[in-house]
Amino acid sequence: MVDGLLDVAMPEVDPDVVVLWLSDPDTTAHRHGVGHQRMSEALFYLDAELDRIQAWLSAEGRLESTNIWVTSDHGFSEHTGAVDLDALLEPFQRTLDDGTLRIVAGAGAIYVRDGDEATIRQIVDVLQVTEGVGAVFTGAATPGDAAGAIPGTLSFDVARWGHPRASQVLFSADWTDQPGAYGLPGTSAQGGVAGHGTTSPFDIHNPLVAAGPDLKSGAIVDVPSSNVDLAPTLLHLRGIEAPETMDGRVLLEALDAGPDPDSVVVAVDQARMSRDDGAYAVTAATSSAGDATYLDYTIVERP
Ligand SMILES: [Zn+2]
Description:
Number of domains: 2
CATH superfamily of the largest domain: Alkaline Phosphatase, subunit A
Mean pLDDT: 94
Strand content: 15-25%
Bound molecules: zinc ion
Shape: globular
CATH architecture of the largest domain: 3-Layer(aba) Sandwich
């Protein structure tokens, strides 16, 4: 905490929206683990910072007219060790004529630069039978389809990953709901102490708490939502219609003027892809509200 930070006079600045990014508890949880004593301390200080902001707004006579939204960019899992991807790809790796590597991989994305279809299928085959590998994604069999072009894979579209620079294969580390070192559930097969980036529900689901004059009071809203919905919602509150190019939906059910959350129709769905030999299956669980569909988690089965 830096006392006096908000005492700086800024008379000419009167923004409609202020984004305040606080690096904790993220930094502390990545470094020390989910539920570590220092993470609890970080949460304590974070709470005090929010209190300080509200006190300032109150002193300025602005608290009653300000909506405050609090969210995080991800959830958290304890990491239990990553698949050795270099070793897994080694049989397929070689140096191309120009001296560069044939296969480039990072963060679960695998790019076979010569585009050899047989190699891509073989890599998928190996991933599917490797413990620690979770959902495997490839390009959609047909656009918008949940099935990937390679049997037993989900399509990139399920994870909103179908883009012009996408590699041919993407995989998520596998996850469990087992408790970590400090008793909080959620582990994933990744390197380092703790983090995110998988399709585990513990990584995907994050908090969204909001209070203010335009919001329902004391309501718990179970309608699915995502951080991608924040921008159109904030624009809506300023009377600005989101452009068609913008992703996300307006979270009307959270707004005071919006519908009762219980009246919003939520549809849940599961898409299961399995390999013919039964060695691997992956299921993607999604939920939808209106036109928006959200990936809730994926789960794999191996005999
Ligand atoms: Zn983080």
